[in-house]
Amino acid sequence: MLLWLFERLAAVWPDSAWADRLPAFEKITLRASLAAVVSFMLAMFLGPRLIEWLRRRFREPIKCDSARLCELHRPKEATPTMGGLFLVAGLVGGVLLLADLRNAYMHAALVVTAGLAAVGAVDDLTKLRGTGKGLSARKKLLGQAAVATAAAVIVYHRHAALPAALDLRIPLVQLDFPLGAFFLPLAVLVIVGASNAVNLADGLDGLAGGCLLFAVAGMTVVAYAGGHAELAEYLNLIGIPGSGELTVLSGGMIGGLLGFLWFNCHPAQVFMGDTGSLPLGGLLGLLAVVTRQELLLVLVGGVFVAEAASVMLQVGSYKWRRRRVFLCAPLHHHFQFLGWPESRIVVRFWIASALCAILGLVSLKWNVHEERPVSPESFSAVAKSVCPAGSRTRESSGKVPNSHEFGYEP
Prior knowledge:
Layout: H1 2-12, H2 17-25, H3 28-57, H4 67-72, H5 84-98, H6 104-129, H7 137-159, E1 167-170, E2 175-178, H8 183-201, H9 207-226, H10 229-234, H11 246-264, H12 273-291, H13 294-300, H14 302-321, H15 331-337, H16 342-364, H17 376-386, H18 394-397
Helix pairs in contact: 1-2, 3-5, 3-11, 5-11, 5-12, 6-7, 6-12, 7-8, 7-12, 8-12, 8-14, 9-11, 9-12, 9-16, 12-13, 13-14, 13-16
């Protein structure tokens, strides 16, 4: 919204201070940083007020099949839940204020955010107001799939016009498999899968939020590089014009998560609930879908993959062999049953998440072949290609170059 406003003011008054500020404000990194600050401040402002409101209405009941797990979580009983409301509100506020809302990928992100937050809120309210455990698995998956399909269609129409944008990229070996229309079911699977994986990890104070920070940070680098012509070519990524704008979305996610963790750190004042975990996980999956790095997400979000895999292994083993692989699933409960303190589990999972994000980024460099040192002549040629003659540059106009000239930004 502010970008549009700056552009309108610069068009009306081209010699005003607004026109001087526009090139700097068009910088994606600047707007992403501001989105993080705005989202954090909104979460900090709304947090105490919403927590007090939730405390009077929606307190988390302890419902589980394990008597030992219920006993371990007894101190958490009656803690307010649905804290994802102010997290998502901060995220949406930062994005609406600072993102380029003409970008089709931002439309898909808003669909995922609003749609999965609504599904999560219905699930949370069903748990709180009834005797059951929320929506049935079928209804919940149908709601998630419907939202993911709508977002996938938006991305598909944008990607279909781009070369190789519908290919599945295999990291490290750099093999591409054209998907065509099969992109749609894969995109739905990734968005829904990431949404549920983050939801499963939301079982201890600060666990899901902290791990998400590292995973989102890793995928943010991929999104920015994929939308930047030179970086995409250097890292051998599939160039996705406009994907760099998702960096602003990631900034809003990081700011909102930091604001939420302020109240969710042990002992938690509020829980995220499905209202927050479902949309945030879905957005993480969307980042991978847009950048065509679905398989890289398996590494970057390794903690969430391990959490989801532990549940599938536990359920499958018990159904087929009547034996349990873990003391309790998801994985973080297994370590609780081993006697680890909650704070130790959370911090070690954060460390594992940070390492997964680092390894994911390292894998991007695996197939980069360094060229000989750049000569002054070739460096000059690159500079001219980045800032062609006639473009507005610091030297020629006294202003910062337009960030859209450095990559694929529309």
